[in-house]
Amino acid sequence: MNFNKKLEKAIKKNNSLLCVGLDSDVDRLRESFGESRQFLFNKSIIEATKTHVCSYKLNTAFYEAIGHSGIKALKDTCDYLREKHPEIPLIIDAKRGDIGNTNDGYVQFVFTYLGGDAVTINPYFGEEAIRPFLNKKDKGIIVLCKTSNAGAGEIQDLVISNGMRDLVPTLRRDAYNASLDFSASPRNDMKLYQYIAYQVSHEWNKNKNCLLVVGAMYPNELKQVRKIVGQDMTLLIPGIGAQGGDLEATLKAGLNSRGRGLIINSSRNIVFAKNPREEAKKLRVEINKFC
Amino acid sequence: MNFNKKLEKAIKKNNSLLCVGLDSDVDRLRESFGESRQFLFNKSIIEATKTHVCSYKLNTAFYEAIGHSGIKALKDTCDYLREKHPEIPLIIDAKRGDIGNTNDGYVQFVFTYLGGDAVTINPYFGEEAIRPFLNKKDKGIIVLCKTSNAGAGEIQDLVISNGMRDLVPTLRRDAYNASLDFSASPRNDMKLYQYIAYQVSHEWNKNKNCLLVVGAMYPNELKQVRKIVGQDMTLLIPGIGAQGGDLEATLKAGLNSRGRGLIINSSRNIVFAKNPREEAKKLRVEINKFC
């Protein structure tokens, strides 16, 4: 079963668009958990939240922080999930990217060693370089588009002058025009994040396995991205909760015509809550009000 | 001692701009090395080449490929280098990047756990996000600019229409004009990789700890980058050897006025050569012909 189908099933089963990010920062974990504290913590969060999620996301930074034992905890968590809850998709938030064959190492890490269902990748190298990821037909390849940090615009909002003129040869200019709201930019230029959204959805997505990351801090940009990619592509949305993204604005801007097409991630606000189960349930219900 | 000083000393001691990339792809290593085969292989390469290099580079992809035991081999290699050859700078080619504090995990991995002297990072998130890296004053922060893959231009050569107009407010337009050769682009637009080079050298480099990656496949772009960043910034050049970069063109385009300012990396062509010592020596001597 490919990632999109597995995700669809999990969304339906738990009636949830919520992804819980297992950001088990060792500095915030109780010492009493001992050597395996990241794994044991994750296990407790998984058991508390498993009926309220459509997926789990593991950000590699929190595991790499302590080296090989952290990587082992990451693997133990993935093994546990695949064994006990094989129906829940597992997203490895690695934000990797390198040139051509070097990516084979990362592909092996994420899909063979960890057994992930999807991975986040960085688009800076271009499609040609990240083919080892894109070639994995059954996996979700989630490309960074507009990230959730305050300074994302420094690079991602750069206006590309030859965007419309040269870069979209395969699409009729009228059709492209109609698909975007360029009221602020009458010359029909596009921003880098829009170009990424366009390229990923129209060029990189030959195996229908691409998704995009758009931060919840940017509902206007999310709306643009939804217009560019159409109704079928799923968008992973970090930034709800601790980072301050607005849930209602996000859902209104990003849901597709079927009230789906988003994965809403929350990490710290759930995993470090007094009652992670209740927090996950609350957010799931809140999300469903707008679907 | 900061990274740039350590590098300068190593360059002087071995009279070398050569960096050997320890890309110890497990699939290419002899089974007879057993469990620690990546570490033992690296050790043998280090001992063979140590008098011919200015630095070693370890690409994390080749270690992550086999999971936590690969990460252990990576650490063992770093420990060995720091213990036996503490004068040789150690570059962790991780190409990492995430939002704000999440980068703390990667910073800990690269500098605390591995004890690296420098790291490669991806610029897509912008300066605000990667401050945890930039704040490490004594470390080298090597930002991807123009990567060595054939398809790098898809994103990195995008022309930024507001480049000159809005994005370079701190520099007088004339001075900027004079510093670049825009004969092909009379509107003084810049490409994304040029903008990255400009931002990193003029804005991100407050701690004088930034370097840039420019692939050897692109001597013309390297020339542009050298013009933008001036004489003091060191550039890491992958792509010589297996990837087919032209050494002479690269050195002519990228060396600064003192015949320095480049780290020339070669990986597979040296580490998988019949005689790595001779191969490293040959390339060092070849490089020095043009310095």
UniProtKB/TrEMBL annotation, chains A, B:
What is this protein identified as? Orotidine-5'-phosphate decarboxylase
Does Cell cycle appear among the keywords? no
| Classification via InterPro entries | Aldolase_TIM, OMPdecase_type-2, OMPdeCOase_dom, RibuloseP-bd_barrel
**Recorded E.C. number(s)?**
4.1.1.23
**What pathway does the annotation place this protein in?**
Pyrimidine metabolism; UMP biosynthesis via de novo pathway; UMP from orotate: step 2/2
**What top-level branch of life does the organism fall under?**
Bacteria
Keywords of the record: Decarboxylase, Lyase, Pyrimidine biosynthesis
- A single BP term in Gene Ontology: 'de novo' UMP biosynthetic process
Orotidine 5'-phosphate decarboxylase domain segment(s) = 17-283
- Under the GO molecular function aspect, what terms does this record hold? orotidine-5'-phosphate decarboxylase activity
Q: Into which family does the record put it? A: Belongs to the OMP decarboxylase family. Type 2 subfamily.
Q: Name the coiled-coil region(s).
A: none
Q: What reaction does this enzyme carry out catalytically? A: orotidine 5'-phosphate + H(+) = UMP + CO2
Matching entries from Pfam families are given as: OMPdecase (PF00215)
